[in-house]
Specification:
- Chain B: This is Molybdenum import ATP-binding protein ModC.
- Chain B: Pfam families: ABC_tran, TOBE.
- Chain A is mostly helical.
- Chain A contains eleven helices and no strands.
- Chain A has helices at residues 3-36, 42-54, 57-68, 73-80, 90-116, 119-126, 131-142, 144-159, 163-168, 179-188, 192-220.
- In chain A, helix 1 runs parallel beside helix 5.
- Chain A starts with a helix and ends in a 6-residue tail after the last helix.
- By secondary structure, chain B is α+β, with helices and mostly antiparallel strands.
- In chain B, helix 2 (95-103) packs parallel to helix 4 (137-149) and helix 4 runs parallel beside helix 5 (167-183).
- The relative contact order of chain B is 0.12.
- Classes of the chains: A mainly alpha, B alpha+beta.
- Chains A and B meet through helix 6 and helix 7 of A and strand 7 and helix 4 of B.
Chain lengths: 226, 358
């Protein structure tokens, strides 16, 4: 491995960390709303959140590229704000990854929130806890396995993305060239030995993530108030 | 504090709760009815867990809900305690953490009880470090009651706190509930469908049937009514407040009540101890002449005060007074005709069995 490989690994970890943190903040209210609402919009919102699960990453990347480009609504907004254009930058990659990994955060959280049910919230209310207080003192601790699975899945999924990065970020060293793109470059250049190193790291990393998830699982089934 | 006013109308698919109640501001009020009668819905409405359009609730002069004025105090701002049918302890906290949860959230000046006192009252002092998952059903329910008490509630709501427990656990908790009643000056509204629990704990009784109130009044008076709907006639019977008067020969104990005394198998309580006895209508028979040479010990001179039909064909319910104490007797229509029972007529009431309620 040389410095460009290490740069790619560092960039990938940075991207996945930032995206996971943003998703914890943005995914929690979405998951809470989906778990609690009786609105007819629930199905629509749930389907939109799940779209990245089935769409080819290139399709998602294509539309995000258009939206963030000079003629897209997001692009015009960022230019008007003096931020320049987002495609082929790290922030652009972060935004695209947030959409791409959204279901991996929202769905475990939604399941965890639904498993808690109504009762602990009612109990907390009769013990003088406001809804906001209840969320932090009851919901978050009881949904902890959901938060763990969501964070691990979102992180791992962001590490593994390729298609969206290629569409939005291209291949700029230390800015948008993540591990998966670096491997692609090595293979194109027929540098199989270097590909092996990175690819092997990814296999080990993915296995460890899944191992962590499956050992967490038994606890995820418990929780609630008895 | 004066009384409690509760008025709610809640419409659900296939169910309508429509109540307008005035309840005493002290002692235990039992909401009694069969399942589906609306007891739990009423309790939830009182707690604000269920919002009834057009509802009204006041505890003394403190109004918690008055929809005509657009007033609805959310549950977490109401000074109440609520014990759910399942203990519903927080699994992520220890027993002590559960007890502290509500107590920490009330102003320091309002913390009337110390955790050690309440834990002692409910016999859970040795459980404080345990996790809820490791407790028995009875222990969990006692922790839940203590947790509610530690918020220093001005009104304690209990939704069948014993229903999920087996008989042994019930008997384990009932004495603690009686202590709550005797030692704390908090009005309690207690939902139950178990007549024995009601007879043992309640001072005031509200009978609910299909979402409506069919009777509301002091326990002994209400239970002694002969005109209750047929749905309640199966369990008909009175509760008599008595005092241990003497321990007699032949392993008998004499209890005095307003209007007479009654003999029961020897009791462990000391003389002067107050007891409640439940006398089922089906255990009372009537005779015109004083029965001679009978194995039944408890025979009273009584006056018939009301006669009502039941929903069992051929049976009637007779209300009578032994001094100031009412009794109910369930007899056949034929016996009534043969004895020519009329209101005002003197009879002899023979009591075959007396259930003592501790």
């Amino acid at each position: 491995m040389d410095s460009s490989d290490l740069g790619a690994i560092w960039l990938t970890l940075k991207l996945a960390s930032v995206v996971t943190l943003l998703l914890l903040v943005a995914g929690t209210p979405v998951a809470w709303w989906l778990a609690r609402t009786r609105s007819r919009l629930k199905g629509v919102v749930g389907a939109v959140v799940a779209l990245p699960l089935v769409l080819p990453p290139t399709v998602l990347g294509f539309y995000l590229l258009l939206a963030m480009g000079p003629h897209g609504p997001v692009g015009r907004l960022t230019e008007a704000l003096g931020l320049g254009l987002l495609p082929f930058t790290f922030p652009g990659l972060v935004i695209a990854s947030v959409f791409y990994s959204l279901p991996f955060m929202v769905q475990p959280l939604q399941n965890a929130f639904e498993a808690i049910g109504e009762r602990p919230l009612e109990v907390a209310a009769t013990l003088r806890a406001s809804p906001w207080d209840t969320f932090w003192s009851v919901v978050v601790p009881l949904a902890r396995p959901g938060f763990m699975s969501g964070a691990v899945l979102a992180f791992a999924h962001t590490v593994g993305e390729f298609g969206v990065v290629l569409m939005i970020g291209g291949n700029i060293p230390d800015e948008t060239r993540v591990v998966s793109v670096q491997i692609y470059d090595h293979v194109e250049a027929l540098e199989y030995a270097r590909s092996h190193w990175l690819a092997g790291c990814m296999v080990v990393f993915s296995f460890l993530v899944l191992l962590l998830l499956y050992t967490l699982k038994p606890q995820a089934a418990r929780g609630g108030a008895r | 504090m004066s009384g409690i006013r509760a008025s709610f109308g809640i419409e659900r698919s296939g169910f309508r709760l429509d109540v307008d109640l005035s309840l005493p501001g002290q002692g235990v009020t039992a909401l009694f009815g069969h399942s589906g009668s609306g007891k739990t819905t009423l309790l939830r409405a009182i707690a604000g867990l269920e919002r009834a359009p057009g509802g009204y609730f006041a505890l003394g002069d403190e109004v918690w809900q008055d929809e005509r004025r657009g007033l609805f105090v959310p549950t977490h701002l109401r000074p109440l305690g609520y014990v759910f049918q399942e203990a519903s302890l927080f699994d992520h906290l220890s027993v002590e953490g559960n007890l502290e949860f509500g107590r920490r959230r009330i102003p320091e000046a309002e913390r009337r009880f110390r955790p050690a006192e309440v834990a002692g009252l409910l016999g859970i002092g040795s459980l404080l470090g345990r996790r809820p998952a490791s407790l028995s059903g009875g222990e969990r329910q006692r922790v839940a009651i203590a947790r509610a008490l530690l918020t220093a509630p001005r009104l304690l709501l209990m939704d069948e706190p014993l229903a999920a427990l087996d008989l042994k656990r019930k008997l384990e908790i009932l004495p603690y509930l009686e202590r709550l009643h005797d030692e704390l000056a908090i009005p309690i509204i207690y939902v139950s469908h178990a007549p024995d629990e009601v007879a043992r704990l309640a001072d005031h009784l509200v009978l609910l049937d299909a979402g409506s109130v069919v009777a509301s009044g002091p326990l002994t008076e209400t239970l002694a009514r002969a005109d209750l709907p047929p749905a309640f006639a199966d369990d008909a019977g009175v509760v008599v407040a008595a005092v241990v008067a003497a321990h007699e020969a032949d392993d008998l104990t004499r209890l005095d009540f307003a209007g007479g005394s009654i003999l029961v198998a020897r009791r462990p309580e000391a003389i002067g101890h107050r007891l409640r006895c439940r006398i089922h209508a089906r255990d009372v028979s009537l005779a015109l002449d004083k029965p001679q040479a009978s194995s039944i010990l408890n025979v009273f001179r009584a006056t018939v005060s009301a006669i009502a039909a039941t929903d069992t064909p051929g049976q009637v319910l007779v209300q009578l007074y032994v001094g100031a104490t009412p009794l109910l007797a369930r007899i056949t229509g034929r016996s009534r005709r043969v004895l020519d029972l009329q209101v005002g007529r003197g009879v002899w009431a023979q009591v075959k069995a007396v259930a003592l309620l501790g």
